[in-house]
Write a structure and sequence with these properties.
This protein is α/β, with parallel strands linked by helices and about 500 residues long. Among the domains are: about 90 residues, no CATH class; about 130 residues; about 45 residues, no CATH class. The protein is about 20% helix and about 35% strand. The protein is built from eleven helices and 37 strands. Strand 31 and strand 32 form a beta hairpin. The protein starts with a helix and ends with a helix.
Amino acid sequence: MQRRLAWRNERVFYSDHCQKCQRPIVSQFSPEEKLIVYCETCYWADGWAGQDYAQDFDFSKTFGEQFNQLNRAVPHMAMIHTKSTNAEYTHLAANNNNSYLLIESSDNENCNYSYWLQNSRDCFDSSFSIKSELLYWSDNLEDCYKVFYSRSSQQCSNSYFLLNCHNVKNSFGCVNLSNQKYCIFNEPKTKVEYEQFIHILQLDTWEGVGRARQLVAEFTLKQPHKYSEIYEAERSTGNYQHHTKDCQWIFHGYEAEAAHYGEHVWRGARDVMDVNTVGIKAELVYDAINTALNVYQMRFTNQCWHHCNNVDYSMYCGSLQNGFGCVAIKKGQNLIFNKPIGEMEFKNLAQRIQTHMVETKEWGMFLDPKYSLFGYNETIASEQFPLSQAEVQLRGWRWRKNLPGTFGPLTKPTPNIASCHNCAKQYRFISQELAFYKANAIPLPQLCPDCRHRSRMKERNPNYLWQRQCMCTQIDHQHSGRCATNFETTYSPDRKEIVYCEECYKKEVY
């Protein structure tokens, strides 16, 4: 996974210009790389094709060095934000309007500083949530309205600090609660009592939010936690799953079958292994990232979409049938290093290159990060597998010096600038952000967008499983002493949460 993620920049952006139409653009690629970078419109326009940059394969050289040469020769898309309006700083996204620093998200409006949102509006600093409105600092919510500092809840509204709640309204600090309103730490209150409590907390100050977090943390540790957030799944392990079947070690997956070792596996993914972000009818995909939309038999690919079939070691391709070592192909078949050849010649040459890669010890693993177009510290790998500059360079990988702010370098002074309390990097407040904080009595963030994002991601359980035994000792749960059920869970043995198996959790909560 680390090798794959080292090819993916989600959050570090640069000011640049399209080398075709010359208009100013935001780009995921540092100008230091001296790449050909196009805006999205020019990238998809007629007038050029990846086949124009075709190379012959040289068996006296390694695959990696030749792929690197091709990858640095072809045009690249500055950012991916298809069918979006006023959303230049969104990436790996589609159908978003009036949004800023919104990553891996689609069909949203007025959503900012967020990750993996779907069909939502007016959300800030939130992640993995769908069909919701007015969220702040929340994760894994569905059909929620005006919910702040909450996780893993559905159909809730006007509430703070919820965890695993359903249809809860006007409540604070509740855990495992359903169909209630005006509750504080799961206890029913009158409307007046609830409003007085919220007023006393002073949640419009960071001191008040800090006190609230501490109270909620203490209460939460006393409540049972289900071993995993897996629902309506058959024979599946991992976390954050629903409607899956035979999925093992999958973290964040839905409507998937026979998937193994991956994250973000969704909507029709089937028979995939060692993957990140695959779905919408993706089948027989191995060691790939961001490979989706009716793809079949894909190995070692990155950002290959839209009806690709039988493709190996390729990147940034669409509608490619039979491809090996290709980059920036918009449509084609029987291509090796972007060069069109006959079908039989393709099969023979692909086999020869595979044999060559076995000899050079390159076959069977994702491309070496030393060839990535990004410094390790620009990529999502640095978030999940943090390394120092010395550690990165010891592995022969690349490091980017002098990273910009997430919004790119400042072009003029602005009063809406703050210094991050964690990393000391400067960041700015956008106008819609300030309006949101004022309207909802939220204190101004003291961390930059990157540090806020990392802080929220750390609130999610890690993508790892430990063998544990259910901690339930309730005498009315039809077991004597401690429940003997064993399971795989993302709660490590040294954590303080009370972790139950599914049956004991249901008996306790429902």
